[in-house]
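Re: Re: ligand-bound prediction request (bumping)

Still looking for help on this. To restate: I need the protein modeled with pyridoxal-5'-phosphate bound, output as structure tokens. Inputs repeated here so nobody has to scroll up.
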Amino acid sequence: QQQPPQSNNSSIATPDMASYWMPFTANRQFKENPRLLTQAEGMYYTDDRGQAVLDATAGLWCCNAGHGRKKISEAVSKQINQMDYAPSFQLGHPLAFELANKLTQLSPDGLDKVFFTNSGSESVDTALKMALCYHRANGQPSRTRFIGRELGYHGVGFGGISVGGIGNNRKTFSGQLLQGVDHLPHTLDIANNAFSKGLPKNGIEKAEVLEQLITLHGAENIAAVIVEPMSGSAGVILPPDGYLKRLREITQKHGILLIFDEVITGFGRLGAAFASEFWQVTPDIITTAKAINNGAIPMGAVFVSNTIHATCMQGPESMIEFFHGYTYSGHPVAAASALATLAIYQEEQLFERAKNLSQYFEDAVHSLKGLPNIIDIRNIGLVAGIQFAPSDKGAGKRGYEIFDHCFRNGTLVRATGDILALSPPLIVEKSQIDDMVNSLSDAILAVG
Ligand code: PLP
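Reply:
Sorry for the wait, this slipped through. Here it is.
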């Protein structure tokens, strides 16, 4: 088992922070009191003070194989030396094809086509466009509406925030969101499901709202429903038992596509390659990014059903079938890093490992029950959310303070408002799970 890296007391000079406008960050607060990461190995980051920081978040749900994997860095280095970049429009390179084939060995049967992107947000935009492309090619051009879900997070493109359901991400831009989008109700129900382990028992009826929306708009006008099988960014919100199956039944009945956004759940987080495998519900499209290549180089992929793909392959063969793509789609260096990552997942059986650890993880996180202000703990696979009552200082303050306290004391957790999320790399050891929980417990008691 890896020991934490030695504190090396070699603190690094704080950089001039004037120019960098940081994403999803309270910039002024951060620059007053920064948290800087400088190295990463295995389960640990090192910060600018030379202190080890146990990574309870896999970076940002990315580094499922842990940090500093030589197989990945060597593949990157070899590829960048061999061919740094190749255009992806009307040209190809072998690795992108090889990667697409390897990926479809993991995806559900029937989702055997892959479109490459550079991020989760791009994967979502791509999936929404594919849905429109499919219905048009299928002779149903009136199917243009989308249905997302409250509290859903689908990245930050205009498509993603339109189908997404996090108020703060939408408000500023509300005048320019996509037209024709509705939202299902979210499935967080602390009153009825607090401290449930695994899937909450109550709430399957929330899927029935889809029937109401279909009655309201007409199935013939609806292109797709998009949901995260498990909402990560909004604070680990789980689907009630049977809920996803019900969404699948309703969408299928009405010829509406179902898109699972698996940017977080893809590549082993729940103890299976995809949440769709874990819950045995197969959508028409799956969006991914992050752990596809352990976060090493920006990359995403959209898995699409053979039917959708075949339907879109129409018209003269000399015509481009789908007017969509990115300069870096299937980037050779990103593709090399993904192939190396998939090899690690397989050689080390990391998805299986996550599955085997999930009971221990569940017991560990639920041992926090009873500490001050915790109003809910929820978990599935190797992901957990711990929700706190807001403090008198305002919503989100308590969550931030616990996160910051943990970081200053050497553990990285993720805060979303007053919810803390844990999603360790799948290489985590039991003793490191204990360390995470102990560190959280200390922080919770200190912050109050
Ligand atoms: N979709 C989901 C479910 C996500 O969790 C995220 C990011 O956390 C995204 C999309 C956006 O991904 P990116 O930040 O790579 O654009």
